[in-house]
Specification:
mainly alpha, 16 helices, 0% strand
Length: 364
């Protein structure tokens, strides 16, 4: 049975509470089931390097476009794609420890920061020459510059369901396109960069920083470092976490911009206007500070099993949200944006790796 336009429902969906739990349950159960299937698929030998979030959104898309969604699932799917997505972004902050990032040294940190800035600059120039919708460009750029699927999830949570642009683009469709492009490009760099390390005059520190500053997903960075040595793997992983820290200010800026836009368009009283900084962004920043305090105090070691469990829970919550996002995607309209988005992602990934390499050789 087909569903009505999901963007209409998402605008009208009331805030969920205990009284609305029976209404939310069918959609939540469906999203959780899709996320579980996605996780189980990643345990298969051929899919271990594929992001759970990407598989979850693909399963959601398949369910919708094959007409497998029950009519009463919409409310729960809307709740999962918004509220659970924001919860996952907040919990994502608990993965990030500033002391670990600072241990890389000033040169490496400057390399990471300038590489991300360079990626955004190249994207602004590149988009002028490609027929790419702005929301797709923003999500693909952030996934390339920061941390792949997690960055796409974070930015998606800060955007309205329907972006106000000439292409009438939805965030759901843009997120699908960006996730597919980021996964493909990240996989290519995961194999290409370690192969190039053997031909370049890089120390283990430089190799690790280059991999961490260039490859999109954390799992892909770990795999790429493993092709070289354990030392490079450790450095690359910490370098990657340094990029993930940048997600906080990026999401805050996007959320602030959306709030300012909403304030200009509304004629309601000031007390009814949205906050300048979304609450989930504040929670994300607080989570980073909390994890950093635990690291500085040494409490992160005895709390290791708890933090590892929270890390798994965070990935699952984000997978549930991505599965729900997938159920709102119209596959036919999304595929029309695939060509320009893929070209955009490939060029941008190459530019990111090139910028990171030049900065690494000069600064690290």
């Amino acid at each position: 049975m087909s569903l009505p336009d999901p963007t209409i429902h998402r605008r009208a969906t009331p805030r969920a509470g205990l009284a609305s739990l029976p209404k939310l349950l069918p959609g939540l159960v469906l999203a959780v089931g899709l996320a579980l299937v996605a996780y189980l698929l990643t345990l298969m030998p051929g899919l271990k390097l594929v992001s759970t979030l990407l598989l979850a959104i693909v399963l959601g898309i398949a369910a919708r476009n094959m007409g497998l969604l029950p009519q009463n699932a919409q409310a729960g799917l809307t709740f999962a794609s918004k509220s659970l997505l924001r919860l996952g972004v907040v919990l994502l902050g608990l993965r990030l420890s500033l002391p670990d990032v600072f241990s890389l040294g000033f040169g490496a940190l400057l390399t990471i920061l300038l590489t991300a800035a360079g990626t955004y600059l190249v994207a602004i120039i590149l988009r002028r020459y490609l027929a790419l919708a702005p929301t797709t460009a923003l999500l693909t750029t952030t996934g390339t510059a920061i941390c792949g699927a997690s960055a796409i999830a974070g930015i998606s949570a800060a955007l309205p369901p329907k972006a106000q642009d000439p292409d009438d683009e939805t965030v759901d469709n843009a997120a699908l396109t960006a996730l597919a492009v980021i996964t493909l490009c990240g996989t290519l760099t995961m194999f290409a960069l370690p192969a190039l390390v053997g031909f370049l005059p890089l120390t283990p520190l430089q190799a690790g920083v280059w991999l961490g500053a260039s490859i999109h997903e954390v799992g892909q960075v770990v795999a790429a470092g493993g092709f070289i040595s354990p030392e490079v793997t450790d450095i690359a992983t910490v370098s990657k976490l340094g990029r993930v820290v940048l997600l906080a200010p990026i999401v805050a800026l996007v959320g602030y911009g959306q709030s300012r836009q909403a304030q200009r368009k509304t004629s309601q009283a000031k007390s009814h206007r949205p906050p300048l900084l979304p609450l989930f962004v504040v929670g994300f920043i607080v989570a980073i500070v909390l994890r950093s305090v635990l690291a500085w105090s040494g409490l992160d070691q005895p709390l290791g099993p708890l933090l590892a469990g929270l890390n798994t829970f965070t990935t699952f919550i984000l997978a549930v949200a991505m599965a729900a996002l997938g159920t709102a995607v119209n596959l036919k309209s999304t595929l029309s944006a695939g060509g320009p988005a893929l070209l955009f992602g490939l060029i941008l990934s190459g530019a990111t790796a090139s910028i990171a390499l030049g900065l690494t050789l000069c600064l690290v």
